[in-house]
Amino acid sequence: MTGGAGFIGSEFVRSLLGADASARITVLDKLTYSGVEANLASVADHPGYTFVHGDICDADTVDALMPGHDVVVHFAAESHVDRSIEGAGPFVLTNVVGTQVLLDAARKHGVGRFVHVSTDEVYGSITEGSWTEEWPLAPNSPYSASKASSDLLALAYHRTHGMDVVVTRCSNNYGHHQFPEKVIPLFTTNLIDGASVPLYGDGGNIRDWLHVSDHCRGIELVMRGGRAGEVYNIGGGTEVTNKELTGLLLEATGTGWERVEHVADRKGHDLRYSLDISKIRTELGYEPQVAFADGLAATVAWYRDNRAWWEPLKAGLQPKAAQA
Ligand code: NAD
Ligand code: DAU
């Protein structure tokens, strides 16, 4: 598993090891600004858990680690759109080159299955209707362009080399342990701290919010039962505008609209993401389980109760992202 110290990867590791005493997972993570080894503290004593501090772009490290593993689940990435607008270099290196390094090593050592964790942002932006897996890719940000590149590279290794590759494309995740630069934890922690929140543009952009546990459940279904060479959309959360989301967070924190600062829009800001999840539903019986109202309330409560987790991370952010 790559990127297992991050937001989604750590949930995946905790849930897999938590459910199976005989499972064995090696986590490879560079511990970049968004990687937190303590996210895996609850499984550190599991007999099947190994943590390796390393870079997926380092071919020697990856080559040495790969033998003995039957599945690669690839989460590691530079994941924040705003950072990719400031500078695309790390996105191309980790997301594109890192994926190629992993694919080559997995192929060389005959790994049984390669699960590539991609994103709905590879489809671009859609004003009406929802994307099926056949939709052409039209990414708009350097982040989504780098994810589209790695997504296509993974599929190309299936077509060219016959590797058993499956790709998941998921909508916006939320939940505990999300790095406080993403909109929900950023706004929640700012509001808890009495600071303002920076709402981009007119706040009319729409995202489909899915609880991180539902995303991980979908990835596990695809890992175990997805067909080789196929793409599976994972979504089915709740579509809301950023303004509606802000209203919900103000309510959950007992604060008002005077705390909202209307700031310049994100460059190239995608208007709306929306996924058709018929394929994973029909083939693998996937159904999201966490209602948005419940998941959001639990998430706000988690950030309220876990200041010690997020405060040091936020202190390390650039002022623009932290805004507090
Ligand atoms: P995150 O930023 O919280 O975690 C990324 C992890 O990858 C960190 O632990 C980091 O240390 C590690 N990492 C980064 N570069 C690395 C490198 N070169 N070598 C080894 N490890 C490295 O990200 P996240 O939100 O958990 O996203 C995980 C994956 O899911 C990404 O591939 C992302 O594109 C995808 N995804 C995210 C969302 C979302 O809403 N967050 C939705 C769909 C898909
Ligand atoms: O759709 C999946 C993607 O979701 C993942 O692939 C990405 O890794 C993940 O970061 C997320 O991308 P977004 O750009 O949608 O998430 P973010 O939390 O950065 O922003 C969500 C929306 O909120 C977006 O329309 C921009 C807006 N926003 C964001 C920030 C950080 C604001 O209005 N103000 C902010 O300060």
From TrEMBL:
Swiss-Prot/TrEMBL catalytic activity: dTDP-alpha-D-glucose = dTDP-4-dehydro-6-deoxy-alpha-D-glucose + H2O
Highest taxon in the source lineage: Bacteria
Residues in NAD(P)-binding domain copies: 2-297
Gene3D superfamilies: NAD(P)-binding Rossmann-like Domain (3.40.50.720), UDP-galactose 4-epimerase, domain 1 (3.90.25.10)
Name this polypeptide is given: dTDP-glucose 4,6-dehydratase
Listed SUPFAM superfamilies: NAD(P)-binding Rossmann-fold domains
Enzyme Commission number, as recorded: 4.2.1.46
Keywords: Lyase, NAD
UniProt-listed PANTHER family: DTDP-D-GLUCOSE 4,6-DEHYDRATASE-RELATED
Cofactor: NAD(+)
Classification via InterPro entries: dTDP_Gluc_deHydtase, NAD(P)-bd_dom, NAD(P)-bd_dom_sf, Sc_DH/Rdtase_CS
The family this protein is said to belong to: Belongs to the NAD(P)-dependent epimerase/dehydratase family. dTDP-glucose dehydratase subfamily.
